[in-house]
Amino acid sequence: MEGDIDRILIDQDGLARRVREMAGEIAACYPDEDTGLVLVPILAGSIIFLADLIRHLPMKMKLGMMTVSSYAGAVTASQDASLTRDLNIDITDQHVLVIDDILDTGKTLRLVGQRLRERKPRTLRTAVLLRKPSKAPPDVMADFVGFEIADEFVVGYGLDYDGHYRNYPHIAVLKPEKY
């Protein structure tokens, strides 16, 4: 796997530090909530980010999973987002935080946001590990952003190329000949 990597953008220590900071920012938004928080991770890319993040959130929480496909197979450009697994818990009048790996074209977060708003949550916020400011549309915002990156195709820490590299511990760019 190491031989496929062109360069590391964010190493695992930097990821761990920023995820801890993000947990503090998120917790500050919900200081007096006894009802807890419903986390809605977008699978599968957000799973490592989610696992690290929830270890640092000092509050009651529930998890409700959603799966959205926008990078099917061996592609590096986002396609139309399609919901492949809908949320399976009630979020009416709940504080909801969507967790996603990356905000680039906004198609995934736009689709998920529309679906979740129909269910009448008390609040709906979004946390993303990565944001590509040059591509992120102005109508799709993230309340919490880990890192802003250039418009490059990245893998690792949950992000994949054709199902591979999710377990790579850093955020990295693949060598061009590998995709």
Plain-language structure description:
The chain starts with a strand and ends in a 5-residue tail after the last strand. Strand 6, helix 3 (107-117) and strand 7 (123-131) form a beta-alpha-beta unit. The protein has 179 residues and is of the alpha/beta class. Helix 1 crosses helix 2 (47-54). It contains 3 helices and 10 strands, in the order βαβαββββαββββ.
In short:
The chain has 179 residues and is of the alpha/beta class.
* Average pLDDT rating: 87
* CATH architecture grouping of the domain at 13-29 and 36-69 and 78-149: 3-Layer(aba) Sandwich
Pattern of helices and strands: EHEHEEEEHEEEE
How many helical elements?
3
User: Structural class of the secondary structure composition?
Assistant: alpha/beta
**Shape verdict:** globular
CATH class wording of the domain at 13-29 and 36-69 and 78-149 = Alpha Beta
Task: From the alpha carbons, calculate the radius of gyration and give it in angstroms.
Answer: 16 Å
End-to-end span in angstroms? 13 Å
Helix content: 10-25%
- Percent strand equals 25-35%
- CATH fold type of the domain at 13-29 and 36-69 and 78-149: Rossmann fold
- Compute the number of strand runs: 10
* Biggest sheet architecture: 7 strands, mixed
Low-confidence stretches: none
